[in-house]
Write a structure and sequence with these properties.
Blueprint lengths: L1 E6 L13 H21 L1 E6 L2 H12 L9 H21 L8 E3 L3 E3 L12 E7 L1 H11 L2 E5 L2 E6 L6 E2 L2 H9 L3 E3 L6 E5 L7 E3 L6 H11 L4 E6 L4 E3 L7 E6 L1 H4 L9 H15 L2 E6 L3 H5 L5 E3 L6 E3 L2
Parallel strand pairs: 1-2, 1-12, 2-9, 3-9, 4-10, 12-15, 14-16
Antiparallel strand pairs: 4-8, 5-7, 6-7, 10-11, 13-14, 14-17, 15-16
Helix pairs in contact: 1-3, 2-3, 6-8
Length: 312
């Protein structure tokens, strides 16, 4: 099978952990151990989150003069290289030497008129107390929103339109390569207005799950997995009546409401993939990847399934 796995941000840096290379490396080792068995049996494409990493680089850049701060598209490119390097190395430590790897800087086109630019919603960077968030907002002009009991910076999150490197990704897969691409939702780019159609970077962060869904769809993946820190999609989350969904049709799972900042986009992306392709999209824990591929764990969204079934 051809499988696309989107690693959630928590797979690389868990909430509250220090944003050090050592901590990230340790988490990548865990992710690599979960994905290595998949790479031995299937074609594998890996995408990943980068919110904490982009936020850290933005903070580092803000320590310099304002005219020296790097824009978010450049920071996104930096994180694709950094995270891809770690994933390649740690997977390479587990798989046979003959298995080739490639990390691609992946430009993704967005629309300059996308409504996402008017209402920033994408969390980047670390969490803050309210007082610290207010201080930084006053100093730097950043926008903050509540993320649970804490506050985080938010930036525009336009929808992805096109993955420019889709052809070399396909070619690499056909050569048996494990491909790491579209990290952090890809590098946001758009064509500047005018006759020359000049491609430029955009100060935004594309939602990783939506970009990964587009990637999986354009690659005609047999299975699209969004790996997160939850075992499955739950109804009644946080209540005594919480139940883990095992299988569901896109129509049935869409009847439930899920948090917009976490599980909501994943469910929407899963439904879109299943409806558009007739294939399976899955959401579940990184440690359960092999069981998710076998259909035993996680939440499976399938257009040919009727209703909702739950894990027992």
């Amino acid at each position: 099978m051809r499988i696309v796995i989107a690693l959630g941000g928590n797979a690389l840096l868990k909430r509250g952990e220090p944003m050090t290379a050592e901590v990230q490396r340790r988490n990548v080792v865990v992710a690599a151990k979960a994905m290595a068995p998949i790479a031995t049996e299937h074609q594998l494409v890996i995408s990943h989150g980068n919110g904490p990493q982009v936020g850290l680089l933005a903070l580092q850049g803000a320590a310099y003069k304002a005219d020296e701060t790097y824009p978010l598209d450049v920071l996104g490119a930096e994180t694709e290289g950094m995270i891809g390097y770690m994933i390649e190395q740690e997977l390479g430590n587990l798989l046979p030497f003959e298995v080739p790897f490639a990390t691609l800087l992946t430009m993704v086109e967005v629309d300059g008129n996308d409504p996402g630019f008017k209402d920033p919603t994408k969390f980047v960077g670390p969490v803050y107390d309210r007082a610290d968030a207010d201080r930084i907002q006053a100093e730097k002009g950043w926008i903050f929103k509540a993320d649970g009991p804490k506050w985080r910076r938010v930036v525009p999150s336009p929808q992805p339109k096109r993955i420019f490197e889709i052809r070399p990704i396909r070619w690499l897969l056909e050569q048996g390569t494990v491909v790491i691409c579209a990290g952090g939702g890809g590098i946001p780019t758009m064509y500047a207005p005018g006759e020359d159609r000049k491609l430029i970077g955009v100060e935004a962060v594309i939602d990783k799950d939506w970009c990964s869904e587009l990637l999986a769809r354009q690659l005609e993946a047999d299975l699209f997995i969004m790996a997160t820190d939850a075992d499955a999609v739950f109804t009644g989350w946080g209540t005594p009546e919480a139940k883990a969904i095992h299988r569901a049709s896109p129509e049935a799972i869409s009847e439930f409401e899920f948090p917009a900042g976490s599980m909501g986009p994943k469910v929407e992306a899963a439904c879109h993939f299943a409806q558009a392709t007739g294939r399976t999209a899955a959401i579940g824990a990184l440690a359960d990847i092999s069981a998710i591929v076998r259909g035993e764990k996680g939440t499976l969204v399938q257009s040919d399934f009727k209703g909702v079934s739950y894990h027992v």
